[in-house]
Write a structure and sequence with these properties.
There is one protein chain. The chain is of the alpha+beta class. It has 3 domains: 19-176 and 459-526, Glucose Permease (Domain IIA), CATH 2.70.70.10; 193-220 and 257-381, no CATH class; 534-788, Lysozyme, CATH 1.10.530.10. Helices cover 27% and strands 24% of the residues. The protein is built from 22 helices and 28 strands. Strand 23 and strand 24 (563-575) form a beta hairpin. Helix 1 packs antiparallel against helix 13 (519-526), helix 7 crosses helix 8 (437-447) and helix 16 (602-615) packs antiparallel against helix 22. It is globular, with a radius of gyration of 30 Å.
Length: 801
Amino acid sequence: MIISPPFLPDGDVDQNQSSDVFVEKYMQSTGDGKFPVSDYFQWHGGVHLVAPDVDSKTKVPVRAIADGKVLYVRQPTPEPDNKAGTVPHPQNHQGQEDWCDNGCVVIQHDTEIGEDLPVTFYSIYMHLKSIEATVIKGSDIHRKGKIGQAGQIYGTDGQIHFEIIADEVNTKKFIGDLAFTAPSYYTNQYGCEQAFRAQSGRTNACFGSMYFYVPQGASIYEQSIVEEDKVVPVKNKRTGAVSNKIIKVKKTVCLPKKQDNGTDLTVGQNIYVEMAFDKGKCTFTSYDEDGNPLVGDPVVTKGDSSYSDVVHEYNLYKASLALYPSKPTAGFELLRFGRVIGDEDFAEPATVTHFREIQTAKGKYWVDLNKSYIKKYSDADFPYWKGWGVVSDDNDGDGRCDSLIIGSIVLAKEQDEKRKMSKYGGYGKVMVNNKTDDYLLKCNALASETVQKKIKRIFYKFPTEWSTDKFDERYGWIKKDYFSNDDKKFANFKAHVQSLAFWDEAGIPIDKNHWHFPPIEFIKHFRKCSWLSKYEMKQLIPKNIIREQKKTKKTINPTTHKAKYVYDHTEYHWEAPLGKDLINDIYVNLNKALRKYCITTPLRMACFFGNAIQETGWLRKLEETGGNGKSYAPWYGRGLLQLTHEDNYQAYWKFKGLNTINPATYADFRKLLQEKTIKEPVDSAGFYWVYQDRNSCVPNAHADESHDLISKTITTTTPKGLSKKYYKSIAFWKAAAAVNLPGHISRTDYDEGKLGLNGFPDRCCAYASCLSILTEMKFPDTQGNKTLELPENYVPRGIKG
């Protein structure tokens, strides 16, 4: 699933800011129109957002948040000239002069968030003052595709109502069984806790941070250095005889922390621990049962530390070899996810330890996170201690928020304010603007930061506000409670709401009473997902490519009469690759490999696919053509990042725990790396990506650097004389060199001359295509300014690839 905000920057993005900061910056909400409750305590399915400025006169356009199909379009009604005393238009708010634009677009999104987890949801863009001519009912639209311009809400220009909805089946897929069926934390704290602690979270969807429930009785440990005997074979230089010698070696171990009475010291209180990887760092943050961080700093290990000190994101490969030599591949997952979620586990999983240092109420200590009583989760489980939840306790069918859960949250804050006012003699039943203090207090409580924080990450089920069906029945409470049964005021209100309504004609194939997703938090959360549908993955492959042809020329030295081969780097082709069907077979296993080996950010994925797409002949084959004739046969390239040479294959076997493999089976094992229907071709690519850590060349680390794009123009020979561009960056060169030419990472002439990386312009072509699909980056124009939304000469694939 690839998703982004409905507003994007006019210029290039700041690559140093976090994804959450980016979303918050471009999804600024207005003071009113909050989610999920708005005026009159009416359910409000979306949020009002402000379009950022391009300049003093222009706003950025509204864009599609994900690939999809346009389900409904309503062109906006032009604002009439009411200055001559004409009767106010219904789109003027309740008969006043504040105009509301009614342009509306609804998009259906079909994507995936994990293995066997296809999902469908809908995004609603309301109050548009103009809609792009290309946005037509039934047409496909790409993520970032322009929809139109934000219009007026209550007379203020440059705003939209933005909403994300789904039916119950798909909502349950998004949230997962655990969070969807757990009782609400705010009404049944004990029941919610017990539901989560009874089992670990799902693994078919697993993304973002990992979490651990550590019960109060869990033992805590201290690190100690101990000496142990080690048998070392010694060869006699004179006779050649080999004998064993016992030497003393020092080893770091974790030993139980003892109390004065000799018993093991325990954590002492139930806590939740978050493990987050980011740009090499590994951060452990501990929370109490209410989700409040424990006193004390989180435990942070950095990516520039050596393995002997800590375990962090950039050295998971080295750590897995050292800590779990019998099955490094399972050890890698244990360090990465806190559990083994793949199909290659330890022979005796219960005997394996996973010690990590965490913050406890008693200070920083080590805990074995692999104990069976410690449950494991990820952000895909929407943990309640991070504020996530579901609310569906208002089933009376009207538009008023009668949720006891929301009411209890607001009431607690309201009562707190009453106590404060009463203490200072300021609370009474006086009327202010025809509203009592009680109502104002309730409004203030709802708008308070305390309440908004508690309700902003909840998924809610309630009826749409955009239907005209049974209007008087659904909104009679407004006429009575807020208009004092004034027929004229209610008639103006009704006319206004019905002038904006669209549900009954839009044909959205879900019930009117449906689930509403928290718009800002939903987008922030699923930008962590990184699972690509097969159609999103197909779009990564450039439709038109620049391909370098290395023509070998043979010359004879007249003195030595020896043959010499030189390479011509000047011939290029501009053509369409033929194959993309391989993705149908490998995309599930490929997603699992990307997830396992931390290739989960857009820039890491762009670097990975930029190399893999080129090495597989534009994702058409998993073996090197003609490899049997190479000097390194039969160890020629196989897999998505083609393993070549015997030592690389043997390293992969060792990583999988196959140290005793029979040489007679080598050939059969090598063939696994070219079988498209199993995991080995893509798992071996993920392994090879992190395997470079043995030379301190970490592709993920280079991908995490700033990607300063530079365009380069070349002239093709086929077709002759055609000028085309590709885009390169030092960061991509380093990532590409790390898996191909580790000794040349520091070079600056990386795509020039005879030492250039094989097919680097080709790789850059795929890299730029991936950046356009996976990121919000802009590309340099002819002046070098980052203004282009797509690479020059780039022809996007269709939604279905």
